[in-house]
Input
Amino acid sequence: VIFVKGGIALDVFMPGTHTLISGNIPLLRKITNALFDNHTPFTAEIWFINKTVKRNLKWGTSQRIPLFDPQIGFPINVGAFGQWGFRIDNSRSFITQIVGAQLGVNSQKIYEYFIGEIIEKLSQTISQFIGNGLSIFQINARLSDISQTVNRAIVEEFARFGVELVNFTVSNISIPPEEMKKIQNVMAKKMEMQQLENVQIGAGYAVAKSFEVMQ
Output
């Protein structure tokens, strides 16, 4: 529980029963002593913070992430989704920086607050993996490595606002069906050209050997 007066988080109370007096809220004593000699009613807010762990929450990209796969030489747009979990670690920091003047905050609002950071780090991580020679068709085999990389990238940002990131996983990275069809068509043409080149090279080799025989 956090005791708030005048927009200031005065003190934090752990689970249990408490009598709120100026003796256990030192800052309150300074406020009331100066004006009312410690004997006046006052208005304040009591914020209850649920510090249990929230696991198996869903996250996903609302828009596709544009990338370029150098192995196939084709621009692609990918989507991703997975799970995440958190708990409130620093109640005072959480109240002052995220809750603010709102009437309340739940897991959905926390998700909306951090989803931009998640997508940014996810995009950077996928780009790095593809830049290091991994094709988009191989990327789902490295989901564990990608999850760990994104986790390390965003955990400090969560902590800065009093939130502990308990778990973060990328479950799937996918290409839209219409783009997959285009890529398949391009790859089919590319394979056809390679086969044709092999045939031409084979014919040239046969001609060269026949000249050798004639000589």
